[in-house]
Amino acid sequence: MTPPSALAQTPPADSIEPRIVVEKLNAYFNDFHAIHDISVKIPDRRVTAVIGPSGCGKSTFLRCLNRMHELVVGARANGKVLVDGVDVYDRGVDPVRLRRHVGMVFQKPNPFPTMTIRENVLAGLTLNGVKVRDSEALVERTLTQVALWDEVKDKLDQSGMSLSGGQQQRLCIARVLAVEPSVILLDEPCSALDPIATARIEELFSELRERYTLVMVTHNMQQAARVSEYTAFFYMGDLIEFDATERIFTNPKETRTEDYVTGRFG
Amino acid sequence: MIEKAPPAASPSGTSTDTAPADSTPVGARPAGAPPGPGSRHTHLLVAAPGERARKLRSTMWLWLCGLSAVVVLIPLLSIFVYVVQKGAAGLSLSFFTELPKPVGETGGGMGNAVVGTLTLIAIASAIGLPVGILSGVYIAEVGRGKVADLVRFFAEVLSGVPSITVGVFVYALLVVPMKQFSAFAGGVSLAIIMIPTVTRTTEELLRMVPSHLREASLALGVPMWRTSLFVVLRTAAPGIATGVMLSVARIAGETAPLLFTAFNNRFMSTRLDQPIASLPVQILTYSTSPYEDWQQQAWTGALVLVVVILMLNVLARLGARSRIGAKR
């Protein structure tokens, strides 16, 4: 976790090379206009938190970034999402290829129940028919990255469901890392976990941010304050404010942001 | 529903519950009522009016359910016991290896019918399983909405078509143009009977797979078709295997469609374009014959058929358990 002194020096978001540039993004569920004209630049290799009350569109926003949104029947989106300069909504972009580049971790840990721990780590590759050379090393490396190796190295052939909730979530993160994405989207990754498991996952994020761009939706404002360098506040489908996390929490420009982070509504 | 008293009992039950509390003035407690803060409150240790009847009804329903469960067991167990009693006498190695003898000669077996039934099951499964499972995947995963509803409706209607009708249909479709009965025609008719069951089982079990697994796979950059086959179908596989085995067990005993399609064969044959023997048809022929040793063989054939079906069921359950359960 970044010490407060370092936080105080967080440079403005647009001074850092962005990894994802969102321009006028709109998303719909049938007739319902879920998010309106979102434009934001998400900095490279930082943790960006997305906060806001339930139903404000923050998960929808996240799912638009790797085109998971359109999988829901009746859902569509328009606008631009540039990942490394390429618009993911361009006709030439295959959403399947995009999702290998922009991985996702879900609220509920969801290891594949038919697979062992080892198979779960390799799932993103084997399910795509990729023959993994030196899979042992890959399994060890990714499980070490998520600080799970020591706990599971003797039971790699057991079901992934035999692990605790926190371990399962770390396994799911390892599964994403094995595909070697550059961006990882986290949809309330700790809300199904107890505080100790949460602390371990948060610790993990502070290591992962050195190599990956993390975008995390969270209901937990303390978590956003602890983990992220930048924070986006969503309200009723609008992006109200996007700034360095400590400014959002100490000196926000918008009164609605202030009301929310101080708990006056939401 | 059960708690609601029958009409005759309910007026008296409710009136005794409420009437004294409403009619007696506060403080004037009826004699014998337990002390408490007002007569409205029933004492916990004293049986409330109607309580005995409620308990009686509860016990009655429990017994009724238990009795029905026993009634379910009786037919299967008695069939099994009866078939073993009658059929075991004729069991011998020669029953499985020898061919039927002409009338008047003793001995002989149903070797051709055993092989024939297995061949027919193999043909029907080779056609029916891929079609049934993939169409189930289509309904549950691909063609959501109107098209899926239509396919599901047709599958439902098809499963209600009498098997003899299927036999006549395949007779017209294959036997007449080919100018002979054949194992292939028999296999096709059994496949048609099998497909709707397999389709519906597959669909229902795929729907039970939680959607977050589907999302997990798609989010890893796995294409839809691979997700459907290798994640969703694989997760549902144990249940589907059980359903599939039950449908195989069902067609193994079908007789009517085979009379029009596979017909029968007195000789050993595995050729697809020739008539083929099968246990159900052989049992029918022998059991309706006037010869005692043929009738005995029919019983033995019935025993073999029941055992084959039982083994298929057991295999389905073992196969369902072995994959990941053993590793736990």
Note the topology.
The complex is a heterodimer of chains A (266) and B (328).
Chain A: H1 4-7, E1 18-29, E2 32-43, E3 47-51, H2 58-65, E4 75-83, E5 86-87, H3 95-101, E6 102-105, H4 117-126, H5 135-145, H6 149-152, H7 165-178, E7 183-187, H8 195-208, E8 213-217, H9 221-227, E9 230-235, E10 238-244, H10 245-250, H11 255-261
Parallel strand pairs in A: 3-8, 3-9, 6-7, 7-8
Antiparallel strand pairs in A: 1-2, 1-4, 4-5, 9-10
Helix pairs in contact in A: 4-7, 5-7, 7-8
Chain B: H1 10-23, H2 51-87, H3 93-97, H4 111-142, H5 146-160, H6 163-178, H7 183-208, H8 211-219, H9 224-252, H10 256-260, H11 279-287, H12 292-325
Structural notes for this entry:
The complex is a heterodimer of chains A (about 270) and B (about 325). With about 270 residues, chain A is an alpha/beta fold. Chain A has 11 helices and 10 strands. Chain A has a 6-stranded mixed β-sheet, with helices on both faces. A 4-stranded antiparallel β-sheet of chain A has the order 2-1-4-5, covered by helices on one side. In chain A, helix 7 (about 165-180) runs parallel beside helix 8. Chain B is an all-alpha fold and about 325 residues long. Chain B contains 12 helices and no strands. Chain B has helices at about 10-25, 50-85, 95, 110-140, 145-160, 165-180, 185-210, 210-220, 225-250, 255-260, 280-285, 290-325. The model of chain B is unreliable at about 1-30 and about 325-328 (pLDDT under 50). The interface of A and B includes residues 104, 127 and 159 of A.
